[in-house]
Amino acid sequence: MAVIANAGANPKGFSPRLSLVLIAPAMALLVLFFVLPLTGLLDQSVRSPDLSIANYVRALGSDLYMKILLRTVWLSAMVTALALVLGYPVALTMSRVSGRMQLVIAVCVLVPLWTSVLVRSYAWIVLLQRRGIVNDTLLQIGVIDAPLRLLYREGTVMVAMTHVLLPFMILSIYGVLRSIPRDLSMAASNLGAGGFATFRHVIWPLSLPGVYSGVLMVFIIALGFYITPALLGGPETLMMSTLIGQQTTETLDWGLAGALSVILLALTLLLVGLFGRVLRLEGKGI
Amino acid sequence: MASPSRSVGATTWPVTLATVLVLIFLLLPTLIVIPVSFGSQKYLQFPPEQWSLTWYRAFFADREWLAATRLSIMVAGLSTILATLVAVPATLAFARGRLMGQGLARALILAPMILPHIVVAVGMYIAFSRWNLIGTLPGFVVAHAILTLPFLFLTLSAAISKLDPSLELAAASLGAGRVAAFRYITLPLLMPAIAGGMAFAFITSLDEATVSNFLSSSTSKTLMKKMFEDIDFDVSPIVAAVSTLIIVGSLLLIGAAQLVRHASQRAPKSAATPLPVARSAMKTA
ipTM of the assembly? Predict the structure, then answer.
């Protein structure tokens, strides 16, 4: 018995040294191939071509780059708002139905999450290109005479990005809604509250942690999103991500690419630093 | 008066209608590529006038597409193994060990999931071109292992927090060393979570497009890079066929992973039953 009591006194079994050995491989991998490349960007931004802040002056002083930065923030905010408006009802329904219905909704939400972003962006091209399904259908039923230009527009990029990021919002809100005891809304209705009053005064306030988490998650991912804007956007819808990509592989202006990257990174870290507490990452794995 | 169960369980019709419409918006655009891939014309048609396997044949006859597919599968497999090999001990260190700077280490492991992927991609591109890792298998594998690490870490942490620590203590009290307790108790109990996490890591790597896009070279590119180029250059229906194959493949793998996970939810109970004595011993202690 004494042995067991002894073991119970030290539930955290591993010594500091063993713990260090266990975590060392992960840390080595991350420091070498993740931290070093990121600090390399910072290095590029202040040393290319020579030691100065010229790249930052160029990035922040230019009307064009400023416009792109503002457009990125605005588009990300719109995508986040759209995802919230579209996602909340789904999360609400998901938390209220049970059994097979819940499974069906869960599958509808999870399947897109685990379908390639590239495939989903490509699907929008199939739908919206000049000779795409939407234009063909509209031409056939005689609504339009000539194909509409649907791609490479800001609205299209916005809708497609919302489409890609919506599952994150739904799952964040659902995770919180699920944990609200049903007794609460039952108590509210027993006290005479109608359906909407119950929602307004009980469910909505209690679901806010999920809303905050979803909003921050979607906004952050949208800020640095590359694939969808790169495929569906045009020169008029250039975002920070597509601009950084261009500077890196086409213009080969690594100094400017570095400065723009550091600005985007700083913006993200600022948001995470200020509001990171609301992020509930645990449910995001699967 | 409506019965309480109805007024709580049922949703109002506007919410239900909104849900149905949003789910259609979520699913339909993606599913459209499936019928389109079975067309026979050079341009995309919906519905196809003539159903055929033309574009599937074209895919399996194209050396460049096949090479990209092979590379992607290899990268996904190797990066999943690498990520698992570093994630399992790291998770154990967090769950059972004593670490200095635990918060910082956790932030570092989760960072690849939160920081903008374009910044990660460009940073790796510039560093990897100095180290001659662009378009190489080690380059892709290391990059994808870093990107899938947070997902594995979260999945494994959740699984390990549900384990009953008294099982390991019981093993220790019966004379098992730390390694033996891990080998015979912890690892078998974690196995379903590890397998499920690996399946998802595999798909994450296969679908990863942003970093792959920058780390690919003109001679060595992943499937996503090849698709990206083809879409940008000329929307050929081969991409629709490849997309369909990817959708079906991912769903099969996810279905399998879900089955494993489902089994794992029952596993702890069944695995715990051989040790009821140890459990009751803990209670008395």
Answer: 0.88
Task: Identify whether residues A31 and A152 lie together within a single domain.
Answer: no
Name the residue range of residue B277's domain: 71-284
pLDDT per position as a tens digit, A181-221 = 888 888 888 888 777 888 888 889 999 999 999 999 999 99
> Which of B104, B126, B204, B216 lies closest to A261, judged by CA?
B126
For B199-230, write each residue's pLDDT tens digit. Answer: 989 999 999 999 999 999 999 999 999 999 99
Chain A residues lying within 8 Å of B90, measured CB to CB = 22-23, 25-26
* Cβ–Cβ gap B119/A41 under 8 Å: yes
Of A21, A37, A109, the CB nearest to B26: A109
Which residues, other chains included, contact B79 with Cβ-Cβ below 8 Å and sequence gap of 6+?
B140, B141, B142, B143, B144, B145, B148, B201, B205
pLDDT band at A25 (very low <50, low <70, confident <90, very high): very high
**Whole-structure pTM value:** 0.87
Domain count, chain B: 1
In a domain, B205, yes or no: yes
Total of domains in chain A: 2
The percent helix, strand, coil of chain A (3-state, each to 5) is 80, 0, 20
Structural domain boundaries enclosing A202 = 60-284
